[in-house]
Specification:
This protein is an all-beta fold. The chain has one domain: Jelly Rolls, CATH 2.60.120. It has strands at residues 11-15, 25-30, 38-42, 47-56, 62-69, 80-87, 92-100, 107-112, 118-126. The strands form two sheets. It has a five-stranded antiparallel beta sheet with strand order 1-2-9-4-7, with no helix packed on it. A four-stranded antiparallel beta sheet has the order 3-8-5-6, with no helix packed on it. The chain is globular.
Length: 127
């Protein structure tokens, strides 16, 4: 399995299943330190993003963006899965996305409206 390409503030852990029954599963995690787009998963080859969990750990409402580009080049309104979606203080959103691609360059990016406010966790499987 290829390595996860992440920024310095992101972390990842792997859980493997038997190769003959299920794909490898990766839990990718990011907590953007700046209110700019950050890669949470990508550069892994053919993948499926089953779900993304967004957790607001602050006492005030925030907004977030989730962008998915199978070609790994464009991250704007054209590739948005969520754009400036509001999340209440101390709340969690669970998004069942089911995004799949056969492209080796696929990238999932996330953005928080404030630094160190939101934690994003994605379930990513190799396909």
């Amino acid at each position: 399995m290829a390595a996860l390409a992440t920024s310095a503030s992101a972390s990842a852990s792997y859980r493997s299943r038997p190769a003959d029954t299920n794909p490898a599963v990766l839990m990718a995690n990011a907590r953007p330190a700046l209110p700019i787009a950050e890669r949470i998963a990508g550069g892994m080859g053919k993948i499926r993003v089953a779900r993304v969990i967004v957790c607001n750990t602050t006492g005030v409402p925030q907004t977030y963006r989730i962008m998915w580009d199978p070609l790994g080049a464009t991250f704007n309104e054209a590739t948005a899965q969520c754009w400036d979606r509001a999340i209440l203080a101390n709340d969690t959103h669970i998004l069942e996305l089911g995004l799949e691609t056969q492209e080796l360059t696929a990238v999932l990016q996330v953005r928080s409206s404030a630094a160190n406010a939101l934690t994003f966790t994605a379930t990513v499987e190799t396909v």
